[in-house]
Please model this.
Amino acid sequence: MDRLSSELAATYLRPRKTPSTACSGCGLGANHKIILQAVSELGLQVSDVVWGTSIGCAGRQTFATWKGDGFAGTHGRVYAIARGLRLALPAEIKLILTVGDGDAFGIGLNHLLHAARCNADMTVIVNDNLGYQSTGGQFGWTTPAGSRTDSSPYGMFEPGFMGGGLDIMNILKGAGATFLARHIARDGQAAVENMKRAILNRGFSLVHMPYPCPTNFGSTNLGTRTPVTIYRWIVERSAPLGQETADTLWATGVYLDASNSRPEFSEQVREKGQQIRRTQAA
Amino acid sequence: MKERVELVASGFGGQGVVRLGQILGQAAVKQGLHVTMLKSHGTEMRGGYVRSQVVMSPKLIDSPICESPDYFIALSLAAYKRFRDTVPPSGVILYDPAFVDALDAGLACRQLAVPAKQLSVERFNRPILANTIILGALSRHLALLDKELLLESLLAIIPKFQAENRQAFQAGYDCVH
Amino acid sequence: MKRFLETGNFAVTEGAILAGCRFFAGYPITPATEIAESMSRRLPQVGGIYVQAEDECAAMHLCIGGALGGYKAMTATSGPGYILYADPYGWAIGCETPLVILNSGRVGPVSGITGAPGQGEFYLTRYPTQGGNFETICLAPNSAQEAMAMTVEAFYLSERFRTPVTVLADQLITDGFEDISVPGNEGEMKEMGFRIWPRQIHPGPLFYPATDEIDIPPVQLGHNTGALCSDWTPTEEGYDTEEVENHHRHAFRLIYKIRNHRDLISHRCQKSFLDDDPELIVVSFGTPSRVVNTAVAKARGRGQRIGSLRLINLWPFPDELFTRKAIYLVVELNWDGQLVREVQRAAPKDSAVHFLGTCGDLPTQADLEESFNKLLANQPLTRKGWTLEAW
Ligand SMILES: Cc1ncc(C[n+]2csc(CCOP(=O)(O)OP(=O)(O)O)c2C)c(N)n1
Ligand code: SF4
Model:
């Protein structure tokens, strides 16, 4: 599951960046594979996609893996770069962003919400390792309540965006996103299918993908670095939407599919511009 | 003729002081002169006045600041008090006695009353024409600018009530000597 | 050629459009708001894109996105927004993205006084971001007409040098009205000295060559060239690297592509009476220089041996203009003295360098005349500037 098929890798990835430099047992690779599988099943070519990333593990480990054009923003800003780029690129080119939870839901949240607000066509995959991991394991805004991390040695007691009746998806929905889903890589083909729907949506899509970090979250909060054990811990706390129990932290599946229900940002800007040009002399 | 002419217009917000400067500036541009115009506002914060500083010259203008204005149009007492001392002996103050009711007799410059507010109401029943009257009065003294060009840019900037504006401009011209 | 009585904001907008700018992202702030407003009106008319951003940090990032997609892009702000550019400014320097930034200086620190001119960002235009290891380009016009010209020039330089260029103006330039001539065709643009450099696409694979070369097309995305750009130190291909050797090459490129081609930039200045053996040289930039020029011309009329050096290119700093031994008086719109420090460094070692500061209002002729008289009589300045150090 975690290993990329050599065929996928040969088609889409730069040899220089494979294998990745992530810690052994890191769940990021499995998420990455789900995305590439979806890209492949959609029949997209290398030239069809421009790939953006954030910093942190989620960003840096995926930067420059894509064979085609790629970019990375400073912490939290990639959504604003992508929004500008969306206005400049042809509509056929897909924008796929792989980013971290701290990047998207902390420092970059304002930019993320504004990308959702204007329904800019991009697919943001938030690879959620349940905190700030590349800086050594501090709690983030989706870290489960009570978790012990290096910056919550007594257990995380302030509320995050997940749990206690909150779900970051509600905020994104309210902001205007048109496709929202959550999956763990263990969802396999179901995750691939919904990733495809996210990419196909001509508008702002976000897929939230919690994944295990053995090095920090696993070892500090769960007392184990064994990927299988951490995966089990995550699987036990996820359930398909509608089948949640009291212990469910991550409801998986399609949270919102309003694909193509709102005007897409760059199309709207372009159309309005043409209309203004027709009616107004310079 | 002086090469560089400085003009300050100042009054309350809403009196059209900035517009007045713009009309003058436009006329000067039409005449092929160089022009600068600074507007200061933020009325309450900065001493309760609005001010336009206009500099006109056939040469490129260095300082856009009117440190010793050749013409000062005073449309409020506060403005008059604040800037009257900057006017050199060769300068002219045009003031509306409806607002400036306490003159400083000690000034060396000429001080000419332009009863713009009164005329605009009594003759035209349109207080909005007061600035046109002021401009008419100014055009009598401002040798640098062509009277017709000034009227033309006034009519271009204020397209409403063209006939009345022409009359008011002439009335202003006639009321000062 | 059309002549208008218009603001510097208008001049900057029209200059940008003449230079080929078709992408503007901004955020409202006095006294640069009108640029955003006029861009929102003008750009759609010429096939361009205007976006209002959620903040200045986003505004410049949006411009980066626009530039990566092929647009000549610009943003405009004042001090409180300029500081929020720090993050994207660094990104654009590192990835060598051509962009133009207009900063209209007002009174600081922070929000300070919104509707009055200041010059508090002289050094910030040299260090607009963290990390060091770069050189910047900054042009400072002193009139609306020149703001138009320098906006055009900033686009030209940003393309050739592949770097963001700041046009540093002030509130009087952007808000003030002046007669402005706008060229109507290429011939008239040439006549006015406007230079245009077209956007091209880098074919790869070496996007960041380890040389000081200029005139290399910037990285653009969406052409399947395998282009890479990021906030990490790049290899020549654009891969993120932790190799110090790579960093060394990249840093030297960022510094020396500009330093080694200063002749393209640093000739821009205005000298008045400098060849006439001045005892005292008054140094300034931006709007204060206009008062200085008037005062210096008057002083010459009185027979005082004074010259004026008005800087237009601020960075890289034109050291070569400071070869003459003289008394220097640096006039700035701040009380702390910024340009003066650079003049102290660049002037011949045995020159006396003095400072006359003010902020919010321009210095008056009387201020300047008094300072000239004092300095020529070998007396210390008593009224302003360094005397504040007594505090
Ligand atoms: C402005 C800024 N602040 C802080 C950092 C330090 N930093 C680097 S990676 C990172 C963690 C990012 O967390 P997340 O986005 O969740 O990614 P993860 O490493 O957990 O995959 C931080 C805080 C930075 N690079 N820039
Ligand atoms: S620190 Fe955690 S998230 Fe980052 S690469 Fe290692 S295992 Fe993966």
Remarks:
- Residues 5-175 of chain B form a domain with the Pyruvate-ferredoxin Oxidoreductase; domain 3 fold (CATH 3.40.920.10).
- The two ends of chain B are 19 Å apart (CA to CA).
- Residues A 54-58, 75, 100-103, 129, 132-135, 140 surround thiamine diphosphate (ligand 1) (CB under 6 Å).
